[in-house]
Every structure is written in C-alpha cells, then in structure tokens.
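Hello forum,

I keep getting stuck at the same step: I have a sequence, I want structure tokens, and every attempt I make locally crashes halfway through. Rather than fight my setup again tonight, could one of you with a working pipeline run this one for me? It's a single chain of 186 residues.
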Amino acid sequence: MTNANIPADAIDGKVATALLPPFTFLTRCNAWLSLMCMRLAVAGLILIALAVFGQIFGRYVLNSSPSWTEAFALLMVLYVTNIGVAVCVRDDRHMGVELLTGALPPKARVVLKIGIHLLVIVFALLMIWNGWILGRQIMDYMIPNLGLSQGLTYWPLILSGCLIVLFSVEHIIALLQHTKVVPSWH
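Reply #2:
Ran it on my machine without issues. Output:
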C-alpha cells in the first residue's frame, strides 16, 4: 500500500484497507502522475547530461560542437525544474517554515496548512494563466538552433501549475480527513 493516503496515526504505513479515505482514486492518480513526473525528470536530467557532454566532446575533441545542444539543454532545464517542483508539492518536500506550525495547537496547525495549500493553489493558477498568455504571445517565434516554437518554453509552467493544483487539492482533502499523503517514492 505504497501509493495511498493513510491515517496520520498509522504505524509504519500499516492500516486496514477499510480505513482508507474515499478519495483513493484521486490519490492513486496523483501518486501515478507524481511517479511518472519523477521518471520524466530523471530522463530529462539524463538528456541534459548527454547534451552537455555532446557539446563538450564536440568542442574540445572534434573542434566542431553541435549548435543545438545548448538550446536543448536550457529547454530541458525548464521542464525538469517545473516538473520537479510539482512532485515536491505532492511529496510535501517544498520549502516551508516549520517554526510557526510546530508552535500551534493541532487544529490551528491544520487550518494553517490548509491556508498554505490554498495559497499554493492560487499561485499555481496564476502560473497556468500567465504561462498560457505568455506562451500564446511568443508561439510564432522560434528557438534558435532548434527550430521549435518559443512557446514551448512556457508549457512546463502550465503543466506544473496543473499538477500543483491537483496535488494541493489532495493535501487539503487529506488534512480535512486527518490523513497524510504518502510520498510517491515510498
């Protein structure tokens, strides 16, 4: 039972199936999405490393470096980082200040965490909206040396925003049901 929400008081993730919350479908979908995003991010990192290696090898060994590798690596960095941000939101590994939440009583802590996730959703919706606007405005321009639309540089912002909304909604539901979201890598 690695990719389902479990009650917060369960020991070592062992809990009867009957205790699972009713939004198990959302949890399973989000866990699968998060796992696929992690795999895509790792594949992206490998592609970045290969592109940079090809650039270095071409420049210093062949005296003729490929012109597309730098632009490709930069585009991949955008995808890897934005996908990684979404996964961090799902796995609750994003940056946060724990000093305040640790000092609050349990009910106030839940309210604060829900408020934080609501703010994250607002920010993600702004990412989607502005990524869409900016992507549409520069869709006709091309990335030098790649021949791809410049609008592709804003797609990861939109994708990441959509995933962050899904993952934050899952966290809010889990908080309301007094459960925890199990990270995808478990």
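Residues 6-19 have pLDDT under 50 and may be disordered. If your local run keeps crashing, start a new thread with the error log.
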